[in-house]
């Protein structure tokens, strides 16, 4: 049995399931929590470790870590070990450079608001 934080296995959808319902459902469930959407939005600006994400969102590190684990399980964030820290980023296929205004979930796309310019 795979570890709880292992990404979803890549399996072929059943015949006639063009939406890849199971995979899409897991991704949408993971994004169905406001904090996780905020994390994904934050990672649009570039990779960050759990402490940086927690500080930016003003959340406890343990809470942030839990949300990152859920996002990683749904293959919505990538993890890379960097020394003693783990750096999180968005997968290239989730936020393609050619269409940075959308999250590409494979089964559907979510339109992203344009980042607001910092207030003067």
Automatic annotation (TrEMBL):
* Lineage of source species: Bacteria, Pseudomonadati, Planctomycetota, Planctomycetia, Planctomycetales
Stored Gene3D superfamilies: Winged helix-like DNA-binding domain superfamily/Winged helix DNA-binding domain
**Which keywords fit this entry according to its UniProt record?**
DNA-binding, Transcription, Transcription regulation
Which InterPro entries does this UniProt record tie to the protein? ArsR-like_HTH, HTH_ArsR_DNA-bd_dom, Metal_resp_trans_reg, WH-like_DNA-bd_sf, WH_DNA-bd_sf
> Key word Acetylation present in the record?
no
**Pfam families documented for this protein:** HTH_5
* CDD domains to which the protein is assigned, alphabetical: HTH_ARSR
Q: Name one GO molecular function term.
A: DNA binding
> Residue ranges of the HTH arsR-type domain?
16-120
Superkingdom as given in the UniProt entry: Bacteria
Official protein name in the record: Transcriptional repressor SdpR
The record's listing under NCBIfam families reads: HTH_metalloreg
Which intervals of the chain are annotated as region Disordered? 1-20
């Amino acid at each position: 049995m795979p570890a709880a934080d292992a990404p979803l296995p890549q399996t072929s959808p059943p015949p006639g399931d063009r939406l890849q319902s199971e995979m899409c459902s897991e991704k949408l469930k993971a994004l169905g929590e406001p904090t996780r959407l905020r994390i994904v939005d934050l990672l649009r600006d570039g990779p960050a470790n759990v402490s940086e994400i927690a500080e930016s969102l003003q959340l406890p590190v343990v809470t942030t870590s839990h949300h990152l684990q859920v996002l990683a399980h749904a293959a919505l964030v990538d993890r890379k070990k960097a020394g003693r820290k783990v750096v999180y980023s968005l997968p290239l296929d989730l936020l393609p450079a050619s269409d940075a205004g959308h999250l590409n979930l494979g089964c559907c796309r979510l339109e992203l608001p344009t980042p607001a310019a910092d207030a003067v």
